[in-house]
Amino acid sequence: MKSRELSVRGAFEFVPEVFEDPRGIFVSPFQESAFESALGHRLFPVAQTNHSRSRAGVVRGAHFTVTPPGTAKYVYCARGSAVDIVIDIRVNSPTFGAWDTAVLDPVGMRAMYLPVGVAHAFVALEDNTVMSYMLSGEYVRENELALSVFDPEIGVVLPRLCDPVLSERDRDAPGLTQLQESGLLPDYGECRRIERAMYGV
Question: Which family does it belong to (predicted)?
């Protein structure tokens, strides 16, 4: 499995080897040794797994968790394809405001690791796109906030969508400056403290 650090500090893309034969394919989207080699520690203790199915043109996010408690994620696409997006919204982060993307699909089986405090979104490129997540914390509705993935201040380059499909929350989500002025963005130092405690490092 290969890895590369993304433009957002602490976020990584992982690319596993895919074994194919006349029966189909076999692949391991998560491998502890590769994760530990890239990040210097094991994956977070998994508190919840999520599974979503979306039609083409669906935009989910950008979502983030109030920190504390904060949540780290490991995401891959089991069916269809999606542009996965990570945005650094951690105040005082060396990459604050930066973003990066990777195309996730069941052909290359790339996966994304998203550290505590960043915002996450994806755009489904096909009908029946299935995204799978491992999370360090369980979902608590009042801790989950949204950032507009269309915020021009951030400037995420999205696939051309004739008619993007969003939830009401995501459609009405505030921009980065509004969230920062409201004091709702995570602090980078606090995120790192939570991660050190989570990973025991």
Answer: Belongs to the dTDP-4-dehydrorhamnose 3,5-epimerase family.
In the chain the domains, ranked by start, together with CATH numbers, are: 2-199 (2.60.120.10)
Active-site residue among 63, 74, 120, 188? 63
Q: Is 51 a catalytic residue?
A: no
At residue 82's C-alpha, the angle toward residues 79 and 84, to 5°, is 125
Catalytic site includes residue 133: yes
Helix (H) or strand (E) holding 21: strand 18-21
Nearest CA to 1 among 51, 50, 49, 36?
36
pLDDT tens sequence across 175-184? 999 999 999 9
Query: What does the pLDDT look like over 74-129, one tens digit per residue?
Result: 999 999 999 999 999 999 999 999 999 999 999 999 999 999 999 999 999 999 99
